[in-house]
Amino acid sequence: MKITQDLYQGSLALLTDFYQLTMAYAYWKSGKAEEEAVFNLFFRKNPFQGGFTVAAGLDYIIDYCRNFKFGQDDLDYLKSMKNADGSLTFEPAFLEYLSKMEFSCDLDAVEEGTVVFPHMPIIKIKGPLIQCQLLETPLLNIINFQTLIATKAARIVYAAKGDSVLEFGLRRAQGIDGALAASRAAYIGGCTSTSNVMAGKLFGIPVSGTHAHSWIMSFDSELEAFKAYADAFPDKCVFLVDTYDTIKGVKNAIEVGKILRERGKEMLGVRIDSGDLAYYSNLAREMLDEAGFPDAKIVASNDLDEQIITSLKIQEASINVWGVGTKLVTAFDQPALGAVYKLAAIKNKEGLWEPKVKVSQQSIKINVPGNQRVVRFSKNGKALADMIFLKEESLERGQFTIIDPVDPTKRKKIYTDGLEKEELLKSIFEKGTKVYERPDIHQTKKNTERNLTQFDKAHKRLVNPHVYPVGLEEGLYELRTQLVFKMKDYDGA
């Protein structure tokens, strides 16, 4: 099956905030448009009060950058814009400049499915200042949402402790594109299938689903409905048993299961969508086992999330498969990741990189300056710490000290002898040309699984997780501190 890659094939250059265009015009007007700059995309806190985050969205970004251009209809729209006094917002020469613009940046990124943490760059983009600026909003839009959903899915899958988790949130998702992106990110995060048929077609995700209460209600009796469904799908029978009475529903499912068995087929299981899931799943398990259906699965749904699944696990509910919709695809308890995109360095007229820092009264909002790399230190496949450092810094030293970017009292010494080192930022584009061999979505899902196994359970627990050490290399921390003092002095603070 051919998996669609270029989901966004037309021009989406205007999918941006207006101030990106006004800054782009001002860069061009002041002669700064072609200055070389480095921007970093990162977030400041793990979502859901958790201990980790799963990166997702890079595939969309690859397509966006490959197709980045201002089409004639985009330029006509910009040409029609007027200022309050009736003058043109953008002069014709600037629109001519945009018409010839082609994506020519270097773009490095962590691969999808990589476990990431606050303050480290997920994406680093280097190139003409105007292009880097125009890419801010779409890159944030893509990464913020898909990373959030992939992380939510990973948490739910972790709570399910090896059971299958089905994503079926299409009807509750935030619009058409939100539904597609959520289905994709949920699969990357660990879900085994989706109910979203369009996502199955576009991304190659396995699709699943049986029937709704309306199917049962359309017949004179539940038993008749089950028999009719078994006639239509003898190899895929999971019966929804709570339309009228769950216990009677299980009895009817067993009766039809016996009919299927006489035909050489097996009932796959039952689904419970309401009521006390622990109580009814255990009762259903007893009934199915006694009737000779020990392999029949019990599927549960009904506004599930990682906390409810954890509670049901503690109650020893007899549930094998978890159907999760609304609270997954909407990231119900935290609707935004809050990733940001900041200028980190700019090349001066002498051709030297000048690190840039944004100063804030809140230390968490002071960005990390310079052209950065990120390395993960591991031993025997277990992650120990991540270090953010400058591109020119050598990794050959035998010892590093990393410093928490928010709390400088948190420091960790790393002795590199015997440690594995993985650079997390991979080259995706070089001067606008794609150099990255993108994996298929199934490989990406496996990458998430591999990444998560690198981390201790203490970092993955759902409540009060242990903080995984991520820090700035000592020299980079000192550089940032010096720049902050310099900028405060400059402002008269």
Please report the distance between the alpha carbons of the first and last residues.
62 Å
CATH superfamily of the largest domain: nicotinate phosphoribosyltransferase
Please state how the strands of the largest beta sheet are arranged side by side: 13-12-1-5-3-19-20
Record field, number of beta strands: 21
Instruction: Give me the CATH fold name of the largest domain.
Output: nicotinate phosphoribosyltransferase
Keywords: Glycosyltransferase, Ligase, Phosphoprotein, Pyridine nucleotide biosynthesis, Transferase
EC number: 6.3.4.21
Organism: Fontibacter flavus
Protein name: Nicotinate phosphoribosyltransferase
Keywords:
seven-stranded antiparallel beta sheet; 21 strands; TIM Barrel; 493 residues; alpha/beta; six-stranded parallel beta sheet; 17 helices; single chain; nicotinate phosphoribosyltransferase
Q: Can you describe this structure?
A:
- This protein has helices at 18-29, 58-66, 72-79, 92-99, 129-134, 136-160, 175-189, 197-203, 213-217, 222-232, 246-262, 277-290, 306-314, 326-329, 441-453, 457-460, 474-490; strands at 36-42, 53-54, 106-109, 115-116, 123-128, 164-167, 193-194, 238-240, 269-272, 297-300, 321-324, 340-347, 353-355, 372-379, 382-390, 399-403, 411-415, 420-423, 426-430, 433-434, 470-473.
- With 493 residues, the protein is of the alpha/beta class.
- Strands 13-12-1-5-3-19-20 form a 7-stranded antiparallel beta sheet.
- Helix 2 (58-66) runs antiparallel to helix 6 and helix 6 runs parallel beside helix 13.
- The longest helix has 25 residues, at 136-160.
- It is globular and about 85 Å long.
